[in-house]
Every structure is written in structure tokens, then in C-alpha cells.
Amino acid sequence: MLLLQIFSIISVCLLMLLGRWLLHSYQVINRVNEDLQAANESLERRVEERTRAFKQASHALQVEIDERKQLESQLIGAEKLASLGQMAAGIAHEINNPIGFISSNLGTLAVYFGKIQEVLEAYKAAEHQLGSPECLEVLEGVKTRLDLAFIEAEVPLLIQESRDGVARAAQIIKDLREFSRADTNPQWQWASLQRGIDSTLNIAANAVKYKADIVKHYVPLPDIECLPAQLNQVIMNLVVNAAQAIGPERGTITLRNGVQGDSVWLEISDTGTGIAPEVLPKIFDPFFTTKPVGQGTGLGLSLSYGIVQKHGGTISVRSLEGVGTTFRIELPVRQQRPEQGAVN
């Protein structure tokens, strides 16, 4: 009986010890599980952060790759334009020579035909002195058959029209050579902004004539101190942009200028589609364009902005969708020189 009691007590003690050991084990297991869960959550957070960082880096890399491709394409385009400019200057020089010959020959032809007209007038005056009616009849028949009166009136007109055409071609070539000449070391000089506007319009005529009518409201302008070739580029960009902004129906491009104090100003307006308000603040940003891919580099207005600023001027824009856009350029007549003794 005593042994049974001792056995029972020992069993109870063993059970208590086992229970405490099981409880301790359970607590240890719980702590391990909590630590594992915390480590797992931390690992998941780190994985998410790394994944997010990787996606951001991947996106940034893709953006950089796209920008590099776009820049490479634009650089290739710029090289092509530079080559075309050099070719245009060379072609203009080559064409200028035969045009000079044609112009000279037409002038000589006009002089020679004037002498022929003198002879014809002398013959006319002598007709009444011819005694033979048969001879007079033959002469009249020849004049009627050849329509001599029409030829005498038409040939001077044909010569003049040809001379006008040659003069027009010569002016285009002159403007093209001026516009496309290399400007690697530009020199500030006094030049006529008005002449630059007209010569640029002459070159851009083909891009404009099928899209819009040109309306000019000019006042006399003083010569300004500038880099003429660069200002011509600005005018070209604005005029071509104005033509491209006009829809399928023929529109109008209006040019106005004026003098304001020590500055001159030029406005180029179009009756195109206008610019959306949310786009307007971005139009001078490099590489920004609303044109389809391959139809615009996004550099024209940015370069124009830089050129105008280099001249100490301002360029601004106002636009209304469905009505049109106006660009305004203001330029100082004289460039400000650094004061003597100023630090460069």
C-alpha cells in the first residue's frame, strides 16, 4: 500500500514536471514562431523594397535608354541638316553661275531685239515709198501670216518675264546661301531685321504657300546689333511652326513689327489650332513636341528661346485653342557691353 502511494506521488511529480516541460517547450516554440514570423515579415518587406527599387531603377534605365535613342536620332538628324546646309550652299553657288549667264544673255537679247524693232520701224516708215503694189501686198501678207504685230508686242514681255524669273531665282539663291552658311564663329554686326524676315520668308515660301496667305503689317525698323543667321533661324522656326499649326483649310500668317523705346519687336500670328493651356508652359522645353514621332525633334522652339536670350531679348507666346497662336519677340537695338574692369 505504501509502495502504491509512493508510486502515485512519483507519478504525479513526473506528470507535473512533464507538464512544466511541455509548457516551457510550448512557450519556446511560440517565441520561435513569433521570431520566424517577424523575420519572414521583415524579409517580405525587404523583398518588396528591393523589388520596388529594382522597378524604379529599371524604369529610370529605360527612360535613359529612350532619351539616348531620341538624342542619337536627333543628332543624326542634325548632322544630316548640317550636311544639307553645306550642300545647299555649294549647289546655290553652282546654280548662281548659269543664272548669271542667263541673266546677262537676256539683257543682251533685250538690247538686240530693241535694235531689231528699230529696223522694223524703219521698214514700216519706208513701206509707203515702195512703188509696187504687188510688193506691198506681199509684205502685208507676210506680216499677217507671221502675226508680226503680236510678236513685236509679246517678245519684250517674254524677255521681261524671263528676267524677272531669273532675278527671283537669284534672290532665292542669295537668301539660301545667307541662311545656310556656316556660322561656327559668329560675329556681332549691325543688320536689318526687316531684310532677314523677308529673306527667310522667301526661303520658307514652299512650306507656307500651300497652307496660308502671308499678311505683312510692317513699319520701318532701325538696324540692330545681332547675329543675323541665328535670328533668321528663329524666324524660320516660328514661320514653319505657324504653317504646320494650320489645319486642312487655308489659313493666314500675319507678321507685325514695331519699335518700342530702345527695342524692336516682331509678332508672328497664325489662324491655326492653337495650343492647349496645359501644354503652353512646356513649349520651350528641350525635346518637348506634340508632333507625331518622326515629324518633330522638340528642339526648334528651345533653340529659338536660347538664341533670343543670347541677344538679351525675350520671346513670349499667347494662344487660344481653335483660334490661333501669336509669338512675340523683343530685341534690343544695341547689345549691352560689359563695363570696363568687370570680372569675366
UniProtKB/TrEMBL annotation:
Matches recorded under Gene3D superfamilies: 1.10.287.130, Histidine kinase-like ATPase, C-terminal domain
Enzyme class per UniProt: transferase
Domain Histidine kinase: 90-335
Keywords on record: Coiled coil, Phosphoprotein
Protein origin, superkingdom: Bacteria
Catalyses which reaction(s): ATP + protein L-histidine = ADP + protein N-phospho-L-histidine
UniProt-recorded Gene Ontology molecular function terms: phosphorelay sensor kinase activity
A Pfam family recorded for this sequence: HATPase_c
Coiled-coil regions listed: 26-81
Enzyme Commission number, as recorded: 2.7.13.3
Name of the protein described by the UniProt record: histidine kinase
